[in-house]
Specification:
Radius of gyration: 27 Å
Mean pLDDT: 94
Structural class: alpha+beta
Number of helices: 25
Strand content: 5-15%
Low-confidence stretches: 1-36
């Protein structure tokens, strides 16, 4: 009888595992038939794709081959992505990628942001403030070197610190061996694999052509993440170097950079069904993280951030009504906040629509059953998921406090300045390799250059004060066990919150760039002698940030070890290898020009046309089409830029590539390796791409190269630039 019961239990256990495994098959791949199309592929992995079978006509090895003129060298990272389109260093990217630089160059008298900009000669090209262009030169796996410093006896914080130190050593050695290059180590799989990338960093970037705001940002935030789209989201820049060909800061004596290769622009564009691929620098995806992470994002962090950004946007829009000068201070900040806010709203809607968290939890139930079925797996992996759940639950409980501290230094510019000065004073006393990365010698000048640029282009005191007051209110409302001592003391020092904040802002010089420049070489003891209210607040809060940094370092050590194990067991369970999540390094993704059906009885076609521009035009922002453009459309002066299937100029297009933030500006490349468009967005349903991808709903949006060229020639009067691209 006992033997029968044992056998019955074993049978039931197997049935449970099989049932659980069937759930994960439903979840994984959303459909196995489309799985091959998913992925932002590292260039080291693209030989596995067999792109010829997918529709590529060019030699696949020419995408990346260090010995030849690979397409790799035509693609640059400049905050997002761009690409060279001439032998004279001409770069095409998005209007919204260049937005901050255009804002910095604009004044109420010369409002390039609103009216656009054209340099008719090289001498008229103007510096794109704060902009650099980075070219990936090479990459190699350094996982063994990085992980060699991890010892079993280390606690999580020590593990993180040891890895950080080793990475800095590898970077320093690579830059010493390659003078003039920048090196970075990217974590591909957390706690598991690391790659060293070598870059050429071009630091003199100039604006060449910027379309009017009513073209480059047509539809504004109303149309952001939406289809149909009619936005001419492109801008041209040029990279310069010193006369000897080496990267250099801006100088009138610099000469145009000559890239190893550049993309040929195909003015005939693409048609529905055509194969396309993108090269670019996608930011972050989170497809290999556990359900507990998704729960934290969905229930806690993303809603809080979206609400906070929306509050700031409303504040800045109201402040901007006073004058165009004030509006220019806010334009870039509003655009960045609104982009993230709407993205998060879309992700949250997508998570609910797909019931993604429940699917992820079902997968993990199947994984748990698989682990429990074998004693060795149970010993090695049994605590992985429960431990991850505990970490994210702790993060959820402490989030209100960390939210205040994080956003105090992220959203309040004067406090950010003060905290940067305080951190610099402490970090610069350490040996270079022991400093936080931002304060190392190789990076510190960037801080000193960025701060005055921020003050000049984005700081408006009434806005900064209002944001500070709102965060003080949030600090005041924290539960007792999460109170921030320094802020509690500040709030108890006066009669009411408004008076306290007003007085603090009156007694600070953190808006004075010249004063701040005198503080960079001060020691912590020196700073304590300075009578500045914001600096004193930063000094009093510095221990809180140190404690938070130590907590984050320990947490990362735990997460790295657990997530490395999670990847291992999931790969064993599913019987397949994964590519790493996107992490800001160069990736390839491919697909086809095609529409989709977002809802029942709704069909989205893959092209929009200039007729849609006319139909949307209201004469008011964000649909205030320039009269000259309306006249050109009326005249049907389309010429060689006509889409032959549509008998007009196509404006934007849809395609089934796998993209995320950072792919903005990525070249859309046809089967022959030619530029046919510029990626700038995703559809509303594809905002969830950071977590999952599906051929059914994931579509990217780009500006059709035919529209960009037509705008350049007919509206911009910049036909000479087409000649530079080789378009006769």
């Amino acid at each position: 009888m006992e033997k029968q019961e044992v056998m019955l239990k074993k049978v039931l256990k197997v049935k449970n595992i099989l049932a659980a495994f069937s759930l994960v098959l439903i979840f994984w791949g959303l459909s196995l038939s489309v799985r091959a199309d998913e992925g932002m592929w590292p260039l080291s992995e693209i030989q596995k794709l067999n792109l010829r079978e997918k529709g590529l006509r060019m030699d696949p090895s020419l995408i990346y081959d260090p010995a030849r003129q690979s397409l790799l060298y035509a693609v640059v990272q400049l905050g997002a992505t761009g690409s060279f389109i001439s032998e004279e260093g001409l770069i095409i990217t998005n209007h919204h990628v260049a937005f901050g630089s255009v804002q910095a160059a604009s004044t109420p008298e010369k409002d390039y942001l609103k009216n656009g900009f054209l340099a008719r000669t090289r001498a008229e090209e103007i510096p794109a403030a704060g902009r650099s262009a980075r070219i990936t030169e090479s990459f190699k796996d350094v996982s063994a070197e990085v992980l060699s410093v991890v010892k079993k006896k280390m606690n999580p914080a020590e593990r993180t610190l040891a890895v950080e130190r080793k990475i800095k050593q590898l970077v320093a050695a690579a830059e010493k061996a390659n003078p003039g290059k920048r090196a970075e180590v990217a974590e591909m799989f957390p706690g598991k694999s690391y790659w060293l990338f070598l870059y050429t960093d071009l630091r003199d970037i100039r604006l060449v052509y910027v379309p009017p705001l009513a073209v480059g940002n047509f539809g504004g935030e109303d149309d952001n993440w939406m289809w149909p789209r009619h936005t001419g989201d492109f801008t041209l820049m040029r990279a310069y170097v010193a006369p000897d060909g080496k990267p250099a800061e801006y100088s009138p004596n610099n000469v145009p950079f000559r890239p190893r290769t550049y993309l040929k622009v195909n003015p005939t564009g693409v048609k529905e069904g055509d194969f396309v691929f993108l090269l670019g620098y996608p930011g972050r995806t989170y497809r290999h993280l556990p359900a507990s992470y998704i729960a934290f994002e969905q229930k806690v962090r993303m809603p809080a951030v979206a609400d906070w950004y929306e509050w700031q946007i409303r504040l800045m829009e109201e402040m901007s009504k006073t004058s165009r000068e004030v509006a220019l201070k806010h334009d870039s900040r509003i655009k960045g906040l609104a982009n993230t806010m709407k993205n998060y709203r879309g992700k949250l809607a997508g998570l609910r629509r797909l019931n993604y968290l429940a699917q992820k939890q079902q997968e993990e139930e199947a994984l748990k059953a698989f682990i429990q079925a074998d004693p060795k797996r149970q010993a090695a992996y049994g605590e992985v998921l429960p431990s991850l759940e505990k970490i994210y639950k702790d993060m959820e409980l402490n989030y209100p406090r960390s939210f205040v501290l994080d956003n105090l230094r992220r959203s309040v510019i004067l406090f950010q300045n003060a905290m940067t000065v305080v951190e610099a004073a402490h970090e610069r006393q350490k040996p270079d390799l022991e400093r936080n990365a931002a304060y190392m010698d190789r990076n510190f000048n960037r801080i000193k250059q960025r701060l005055p640029l921020t003050m000049r282009t984005s700081f408006y005191l009434p806005t900064d004060l209002a944001i500070f007051k709102e965060l003080l209110k949030k600090a005041q409302a924290l539960p007792g066990d999460q109170k921030i001592d320094a802020l509690s003391q500040l709030l108890s020092s006066g009669s009411n919150l408004d008076e306290i904040a007003n007085d603090l802002f009156r007694k600070t010089r953190m808006q004075d760039v010249e004063f701040i420049n005198t503080l960079w070489d001060r020691k912590p003891a020196d700073l304590k002698q300075i009578d500045d209210s914001m600096l004193k607040l930063a000094l009093s809060l510095y221990p809180e940030y140190l404690e938070m940094e130590e907590t984050n370092r320990a947490r990362k050590g735990q997460l790295d070890e657990l997530q490395a194990k999670l990847v291992d067991i999931r790969q064993e369970f599913l019987g397949q290898q994964f590519i790493p999540d996107a992490n800001g390094t160069l990736r390839l993704t491919y697909g086809r020009v095609e529409g989709y059906e977002p809802r029942d009885a709704v069909i989205y076609k893959p092209f929009t046309t200039v007729q849609g521009v006319v139909e949307k035009t209201t004469g008011r922002e964000p649909y205030d089409t320039p009269p000259a453009l309306l006249e050109l459309i009326k005249q049907k002066k389309f010429g060689r830029f006509t889409n032959p299937e549509l008998k007009t100029v196509s404006v934007c297009l849809l395609y089934s590539t796998d993209t995320t933030g950072g792919n903005s500006g990525s070249p859309i490349i046809n089967a022959d390796g030619e530029l046919v468009g510029v990626n700038f967005d995703r559809t509303w349903e594809a905002t969830i791409n950071d977590f999952t991808w599906s051929h059914d709903f994931s579509r990217s949006i780009g500006v059709d190269i035919r529209y960009a060229l037509w705008i350049l020639q007919e509206l911009g009067g910049a036909g000479y630039l087409l000649g530079e691209m080789g378009i006769e």
